[in-house]
Amino acid sequence: MNQHIFSCREAKQKDLVEYLDSLSHRPQKIHGNDYWYLSPFREEKTPSFKVNRKFNIWYDHGMGKGGNLIDFGILYHHCSIREFLQKLSDPSSFQQLNRLTGIKSQHPDNIPPPLNALPAESPEEEKRRIKILSAGEIIAPTLVHYLTTRSIPVDLASQYCRQVDFELYGKRITALGFPNKSGGFELRNPNFKGSSSPKDISFIDIGSQEVTVFEGFFSYLSLQRINQYQDPIMTNFLVLNSLAFLEKARPLMEGHTNIHLFLDRDHAGQQSTDKALQWDQKYKDHSDFYTGYKDLNEWLKENTIAPRQIHRQSRHL
Fold first, then answer.
1. Distance of CA 62 to the CA centre of its chain
2. Domain boundary residue, one of 174, 195, 216
3. Which CATH number goes with the domain that contains 95?
4. What is the CATH number of the domain that holds 254?
5. Is 186 helix (H, G, I), strand (E, B) or coil?
6. Is residue 3 domain-resident?
7. Higher pLDDT, residue 276 or 66
8. pTM of the prediction?
9. What pLDDT is stored for residue 165 in this prediction?
10. What percent of the chain is predicted at pLDDT more than 70?
């Protein structure tokens, strides 16, 4: 009897959480539809790999990559789409493929090859990328409410962000979009966290000799909120959008006389801060301002303050 081979459509309908469970990957924490894992692609102590079960998609914040189950499978097993569909249909046949190619299935204690060694995207894979449909004024009630939950006024967010409508796997989604320097967007709404291609850093250049650096754009918005009723902060601003860009951004950062770091206080963020402090004395760590919180936005949400209560010392600049 002929073995049925899954189609791409059938494969994408398989539950990612269940598939990860079959590979012995268990979520470290669950928040609504978001399942957070230790990355299957490298060793780490703080979960940076997220599955949104509602949309059945994943995103690895350390790699700056994400997608559906097929995208995960071809990276995890280092195989073609056809080979991965064969595995889903008949796992025993994939074991034979691994023996022939010398590839071992990846587990948490295995480290994959460098990103530049991964296979290039095929035209079919490229079609599954986020497709931007429009970008405009922030007016959607869900996004206005979302900003409220993050303690960011919509009028402030509107200075830096856009309301972006995009299509992903046939679904139309609306999110806040924070532009990067290559024309892509960091995309956020209450149920989605991702980015459109090309993914890159965001750099706000006012011609200053100093630069203030953030891991994510909500931390950047949070500092602007804290200092909203004071004189503007006269530094350039760099939002990495992923710690994977820290090394890439080093020449840009070190072109300044002083580098003010406001990275997250989780394990990955503190490791990156420690690394940067060893590079040059120009780097200054200001994350002690939000000690006890993951990032500056978490601090802001728990310490909502009236304009008259905001002090210049909160800048740490």
1. 7
2. 195
3. 3.90.580.10
4. 3.40.1360.10
5. strand
6. no
7. 276
8. 0.61
9. 94
10. 81
